[in-house]
Design a protein that fits this description.
The structure holds two protein chains of two kinds. In chain A, α1 crosses α4, α2 crosses α4 (about 160-175) and α4 runs antiparallel to α5 (about 180-200). In chain A, the strands form two sheets. In chain A, strands 1-8-3-4 form a four-stranded antiparallel beta sheet, with no helix packed on it. Chain A has a four-stranded mixed beta sheet with strand order 2-7-6-5, with no helix packed on it. Chain A has two domains: about 5-50 and about 155-200, no CATH class; about 55-145, no CATH class. Helix content of chain A is about 35%, strand content about 20%. By secondary structure, chain A is an alpha+beta fold. Chain A has helices at about 5-20, 30-45, 95-100, 160-175, 180-200, and strands spanning about 55-60, 70, 75-85, 85, 90, 115, 120-125, 135-145. Chain A starts with a helix and ends in a 20-residue tail after the last helix. Chain B is α+β, with helices and mostly antiparallel strands. Chain B folds into two domains: about 5-50 and about 160-200, no CATH class; about 55-145, no CATH class. Chain B is about 35% helix and about 20% strand. Chain B has five helices and seven strands, in the order ααββββαβββαα. In chain B, α1 crosses α2, α1 crosses α4 (about 165-180) and α4 (about 165-180) packs antiparallel against α5 (about 180-200). The chains are: A alpha+beta, B alpha+beta. Chains A and B meet through α1, β1, β4, α4 and α5 of A and α2, β3, α3, β5 and α4 of B.
Chain lengths: ~220, ~220
């Protein structure tokens, strides 16, 4: 498949759901906007474990005495920072004074700390800042924003999520049509699917016993 | 039966429920799309124990303590390591420092840990199995839930026949909505959810089994 073919299939499937194959009501541009909004909304809603395709590592060459590093352009949320291969401790910037004053903390090259502020990564590894002896790096392990899809760019999230994103876009499509009831309904379906995936990731143990008898759910039929 | 006949039967069943025998009223390609979306939704909702046909295992050897996921990977179930299939404990990314520094969670060949994250060298998502330095080329087994292949007029559903009714209800949900009958569509959605809940109720902790003779309705 060529780049963008998967996106085209997602778009065509959404058109099938909407019954608008002839593009009479929604342009491709409109639908891609809604679909991309859906991917972002889903990435914000779901637990990281369910969307590992968005895991990313930004490796930056350390500069001697430079304590502040740019966050990557596609940054969404941080997980860990590795300073010269050592997992650094995250520290709230509101309490950074403790890194200077607290006799038990004492940041150093082997006890590095980090925090985010002003859209930058701050490293605290001692008063003089980082050292560099060649090719040492700081790694930011983070969740990136989902790729913006188009007719030439495919999504990076798993195929099992595509119908959820289409449900989101379906909801958005109903708004300009004035069909707010359907917009509300489809949005509720979207949230339900995201919640369901979240629930699965909050349940660490799966059942592997012999099947039980069914539970009577509705005696009236 | 030829390959694809089961799929064709499901499409026709959706048509029968819709009262649209002809493509003039409902395109086959649309129904197929809806059935495939239903397959994804059902696999997402059903408990693993209820769909053994989608619980797969892949084995091989690690490269530098990591390995790529199979193409049909949907979600992980568990990971085993080494010749004796030692269960690898899943570990949080945010607590990776503990694998380096905590003596109680030190990885080894007999106490392996696993996590999923992108690898810079491979520039791709990888399953990592931590067994301490040096990196491992040991054997592994990844137990996972498969992403079901799409049905076509030549490809039958992977999911078992006992769950085909769920796919039909899902397809009817979207079909009725496409036809402007949201209330009827939602009725079919509720039927699908009800069916899934009944199946999951059999495959969840805390259920019951009664194999004595039947009594009166209480």
């Amino acid at each position: 498949m060529a780049a963008g073919d998967i996106s085209d299939i997602i778009l065509a499937t959404l058109r099938a759901r909407l019954g608008d194959r002839a593009k009479e009501r929604w342009s491709d541009a409109d639908l891609f906007v809604f679909l991309n909004e859906g991917f972002m909304e889903m990435a914000l809603h779901m637990p990281d474990g369910a969307i590992p395709q968005l895991s990313e590592i930004d490796s930056t060459l350390l500069v001697a005495e430079q304590k502040i590093y740019d966050l990557p352009a596609d940054f969404m949320r941080a997980r860990i920072v590795k300073y010269k291969g050592i997992v650094a401790k995250h520290w709230p910037s509101l309490e950074k004074e403790a890194l200077r004053e607290d006799a038990l903390l004492v940041p150093s090259e082997t006890k590095p700390f980090w925090y985010l502020e002003n859209n930058d990564l701050y490293l605290v590894v001692g008063a003089a800042g980082p050292t560099q002896s060649g090719t040492q790096t700081v790694e930011l392990w983070y969740m990136r924003q989902p790729t913006v899809i188009s007719t030439t760019v495919d999504p990076d999230l798993h195929a099992s999520t595509f119908d959820i994103v289409q449900t989101y876009a379906h909801s958005r499509c109903m708004e300009p049509q004035g069909d707010f009831g359907m917009a509300k309904l489809m949005r509720a379906h979207f949230v339900e699917e995201c919640d369901l995936v979240t629930l699965r990731w909050q349940t660490p143990e799966a059942f592997e016993g012999i099947a039980y008898d069914p539970v009577v759910m509705n005696r009236g039929g | 039966m030829a390959a694809g006949d089961v799929t064709d039967g499901l499409v026709d069943l959706v048509r029968a429920h819709l009262g649209q025998a002809s493509q003039a009223g409902m395109l086959t390609v649309d129904i197929l799309k809806f059935l495939n979306m239903g397959q994804a939704a059902v696999v997402r909702r059903l408990n693993d124990n209820a769909m053994p046909e989608l619980c797969a295992v892949v084995s091989g050897t690690l490269t530098a303590s990591r390995v790529a996921f199979p193409a049909d990977f949907m979600r992980e179930r568990f990971v085993e390591f080494g010749a004796t299939d030692i269960w690898a404990r899943r570990w949080n990314i945010t607590e990776l420092d503990a694998l380096d520094n905590n003596t109680l969670t030190a990885p080894s060949l007999t106490t392996p840990y696993q996590y999923t994250w992108k690898n810079l060298t491979d520039n791709a998502l990888r399953l990592h199995i931590a067994v301490a330095a040096p990196t491992s080329t040991g054997a592994y087994k990844l137990h996972y839930v498969k992403q079901p292949a799409d049905m076509t007029t030549d490809v039958d559903p992977v999911i078992g026949r006992d769950k085909h009714g769920l796919l039909v209800e899902f397809a009817l949900w979207l079909s009725w909505i496409q036809r402007g009958q949201a209330e009827e569509g939602e009725r079919h959605w509720a039927l699908m959810i009800d069916g899934i809940n009944r199946i999951n109720a059999r495959h969840s902790r805390g259920g019951s089994r009664n194999e004595s003779k039947s009594g009166d309705i209480g």
